[in-house]
Description:
Blueprint: H1 3-6, H2 11-29, H3 36-45, H4 48-70, H5 76-97, H6 102-126, H7 140-160, H8 163-173, H9 178-202, H10 208-232, H11 237-257
Amino acid sequence: MDTMTLWHITGWEFAALAAAALLVGFSKTAVSGANTVSLAIFAAVLPARASTGVLLPVLIAGDVLAVLTYRRHAHWPTLWRLFPAVAAGVVGGTLFLMWADDGIVRTSIGAILLMMAAVTVWRRRKADAEAEQPDSVGTRSGRIKARSYGVLGGFTTMVANAGGPVMSMYLLSAGFRKLGFLGTSAFFFLIVNVSKVPFSVGLGLIDGHSLLLDAALVAFVVPGAFIGKWAVDRINQRLFEQLVIAATVLGGLQLLLR
């Protein structure tokens, strides 16, 4: 990591990072996937690889707040289905980071996000969302879908902290309602992001300098989480789903067009 860069950010650049941290808190308790905008801001202010290491502890702070808020709504059968595939994706993402440059990473993740959004919109137009229940992961097609999304989610979260939109698409396609969606994704990302820390340290993406910057940025995650909790109670299910898909498309486009 170019740690010197972390000590030479301007006041405006820190303000941008603080706003991105606020958005992380909001996305974790309201519109999952919206933190792709935070990813873009961090990558614009900091070197691309360094930005993933700085952002990870900020995301973990948001995950902790989300778990405390929605812990009673998690659907654990879905989580257990996902974790083995996600682990494979994280290992694959680590290997990918060893040789891929920033351009290849951005293009790959952006294409995956747009594909997931398109597939989800198509599936939801084809089937009645109300009839689709979370326990569909127990069927053969549900297991295949869980493994596919799990590998993609693990891969994207490792290489760019961009697993949120992929998993958002999976949970929407599985028929999760708003609170079940937020509770399941909260535990999912807390466990996955914490498991990524040793890999990120080993790749040199997290060190003492980055953690000092994180210590300053985490303070902005908390008010963002409270704003998200206030907002989610005022967002109906259809609007919630539309916002998640829109955030996913926005994240995919900004990665492809950078």
